[in-house]
Automatic annotation (TrEMBL):
Protein name: Putative lysine transport system ATP-binding protein
GO molecular function list: ABC-type amino acid transporter activity; ATP binding; ATP hydrolysis activity
Primary residence: membrane
Membrane topology: Peripheral membrane protein
Locations listed in the record: Cell membrane
Protein species of origin: Faecalicatena orotica
Entry similarity comment: Belongs to the ABC transporter superfamily.
InterPro entries membership: AAA+_ATPase (IPR003593), ABC_ATPase_HisP-typ (IPR030679), ABC_transporter-like_ATP-bd (IPR003439), ABC_transporter-like_CS (IPR017871), MetN_ABC_transporter-like (IPR050086), P-loop_NTPase (IPR027417)
Amino acid sequence: MSREYIISIEELSKSFGNHEVLRKIDFSVERGEVICIVGSSGSGKSTLLRCINRLEHQTSGKVLYHGREVRDVQKEVNEYRSKVGMVFQSFNLFNNMSVLQNCMAGTRKVLHLSRQEAFARAIEHLKQVGMAPFINAYPSQLSGGQKQRVAIARALCMNPEVLLFDEPTSALDPEMVGDVLNVMKELALTGLTMIIVTHEMGFARDVSTRTIFMDKGYIAEDDTPARLFTNPKNPRTREFLSRFMAG
């Protein structure tokens, strides 16, 4: 019986002018996997995530959702994004909306839920991330860690099949990183399929079911965290980890 992949990336390459950022990337995502993508700055991690979410258009190759290519047709992209959500390092909350309004906007406009249903779903997920007491606050009144937890709740309100995280803790003060990582650990335990670009090596080692190491636009290694962190096969992975884990 063939495996069913939610997302498949086939021979995906991306160039900005003459600069090749991604080079023939191949990997697939099964339901319930928590995949952490690690690597040095400039290795292509965030560009790969943005191609998966259709914020960037690949130069060549394919992104498939349940075996079907995601075409760059706005209606199809919107439908796909309602199932493949994204949490950004810069939060991307609507500053003119309250926490509650931020969490209800997508479900009302895209999923066409009633106000009552959208409200109930927003409260449920704000409670899940510990932000229910702040429903009437505006983003300017929140700390970075609180904004990121609201951004996660907003993404969860869409009931996504896959949630992408682009360095979700990189813009946070060190004391706030733990709160956001704890929320993500809890989400992993619920069985949510997640692809996470992160520089938090301890988190990747402890929470991911698969860890991908990227180097210069390639996937240099793709393995279980137990193997990749304790016995990496690729010399570049070894060098990166020795530098990172030592720091």
